[in-house]
């Protein structure tokens, strides 16, 4: 990318460096300074420019990917997406830009410090919110290999809550990320795959934790049971861990006549080589669209569903929260 991104961070501000970088990048997208197809500097390059830790930049890129603004591919870098989310952002930021510009000019004319003005303005906005605007705040913990997008969407669907995703890989690196996320959340939710690890990480914090799980739809099990014995079948997710969970679910259902292979889209070279050798490929919802373009004849969706007990748990959690406000 040839464009120079004039981002800044100010450790004296009362909101995190992560938020500062993320919101500046969203402004650059909204104003057309960076456009769909543009490649972002690598995490290492951006960290060097800003004098930050690489993991901080990685977290921002990951959050913007989850919000639908960026695509991240191992070996290819981080790219601005041509997506509906980007279009909505651009349409919303144009009138906002005009309003903010006028406000900055008026505040400067009156000698009002801009940072103080906007931070106090945010606080005043919070004071004006009614009780109806209060939402359940959920911290969702998952690894990058599983289909965390599916779980997040299901949590949002059932609870109508505001969900923040934090990855275990990032928590193992910095404790500040954990503390910041905890302070703004009412409860923690994780998946059965990582419940023991998350409980250990958060054992010293007074925060309720809930564990949810996913199941495989019966229609898929019936379809795989009919596959020719000794066929080589691939199960692909965001990472190999997720693909292994998919393969294990098939095995646990008693389907053992096939040779299962777990793959992750994060290892693209191995993935492309594997697809050529496989007889059939099942892709999780997060990667299905991309894999379908690679080999439409081999690739099928691996449909997932939230366990009924997990859905009931989320419903109860949401109802309990609403009773308290």
From TrEMBL:
Classification via InterPro entries: Tscrpt_reg_HTH_GntR (IPR000524), WH-like_DNA-bd_sf (IPR036388), WH_DNA-bd_sf (IPR036390)
Key words, A-Z: DNA-binding, Transcription, Transcription regulation
HTH gntR-type domain segment(s): 15-83
SMART domains found in the cross-reference section: HTH_GNTR (SM00345)
CDD domains tied to this protein: WHTH_GntR
Gene3D superfamilies according to UniProt: Winged helix-like DNA-binding domain superfamily/Winged helix DNA-binding domain
GO molecular function, one term: DNA-binding transcription factor activity
Coiled coil: none
Transmembrane segments: none
Protein name: HTH gntR-type domain-containing protein
Lineage: Bacteria, Bacillati, Bacillota, Bacilli, Bacillales
């Amino acid at each position: 990318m040839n464009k120079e991104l004039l981002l800044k961070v100010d450790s004296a501000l009362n909101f995190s460096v992560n938020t500062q970088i993320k919101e500046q990048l969203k402004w650059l997208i909204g104003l057309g300074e960076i456009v769909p197809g543009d490649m972002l500097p690598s995490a290492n390059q951006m960290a060097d420019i800003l004098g930050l830790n690489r993991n901080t930049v990685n977290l921002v890129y990951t959050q913007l990917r989850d919000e639908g603004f960026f695509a991240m591919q191992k070996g290819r870098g981080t790219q601005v997406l041509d997506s509906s989310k980007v279009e909505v952002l651009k349409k919303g930021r144009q009138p906002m830009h005009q309003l903010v510009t006028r406000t900055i000019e008026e505040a400067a004319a009156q000698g009002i410090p801009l940072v103080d003005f906007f931070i106090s303005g945010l606080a005043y906005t919070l004071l004006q919110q009614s009780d109806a605007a209060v939402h359940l705040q959920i911290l969702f913990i998952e690894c990058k290999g599983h289909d965390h997008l599916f779980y997040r969407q299901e949590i949002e669907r059932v609870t109508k809550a505001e969900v923040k995703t934090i990855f275990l890989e990032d928590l193992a690196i910095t404790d500040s990320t954990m503390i910041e996320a905890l302070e703004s959340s009412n409860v923690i939710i994780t998946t059965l795959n990582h419940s023991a690890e998350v409980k250990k990480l958060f054992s010293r914090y007074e925060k309720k934790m809930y564990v949810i799980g996913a199941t495989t739809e019966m229609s898929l099990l019936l379809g795989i049971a009919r596959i020719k014995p000794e066929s080589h079948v691939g199960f692909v997710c965001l990472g190999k861990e997720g693909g292994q969970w998919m393969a294990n679910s098939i095995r646990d259902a008693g389907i053992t006549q096939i040779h299962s292979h777990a793959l992750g889209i994060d290892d693209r070279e191995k993935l492309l080589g594997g697809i050529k050798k496989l007889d059939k490929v099942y892709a999780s919802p997060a990667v299905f669209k991309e894999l379908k373009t690679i080999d439409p004849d081999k690739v099928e969706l691996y449909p997932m569903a939230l366990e009924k007990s997990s859905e009931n748990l989320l419903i109860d959690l949401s109802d309990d929260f609403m009773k308290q406000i």
